[in-house]
Amino acid sequence: MAKLSKEIKHRILQRMMPPNNESVSEIARDTGLSEGTLYKWKKTTKAQGFAMPAGETATEKWSTRDKFAIVVETTTLSQIELAEYCRTKGLYVEQVEAWRDACMQANGGVAEQATKLQKELRTKEQEVKALSRELQRKESALAETAALLVLRKKAQAIWGDQEDE
Length: 165
What we know:
Elements: H1 6-16, H2 24-31, H3 35-47, H4 64-74, H5 79-89, H6 93-159
Helix pairs in contact: 4-6
């Protein structure tokens, strides 16, 4: 088959994107192109950041990567622009907002958890330091006591039992 124009390729890719979400096999039957070619086009388009669901028409079955791509595409849009975008893609504004919230909570949760773990780590390090100092102090006291006992025994051995006199 001869090389296709960019317009035809673009129209075929549009059929794969929301709101159409036509399957690759369906488009292959209609156009006469191989499924491998269509999958390659779909993969490169997806790599460029466009939302290309994996054949599912129900948005609940879209991958998190596709949902994130939609969130990124719509981040700077106003409410009116978002509504228009959703109409053209066959989505609901509430879905995109829910996906945006999920993305923000996912990242926020990690940051909060990291901060919490960092604080716990600092607390544990301080406890270890305090326990280490206490252990060192007690070891010194024990060594001093042991030295005094040894001296007492030596003194008793040298002078004998002085308490009898």
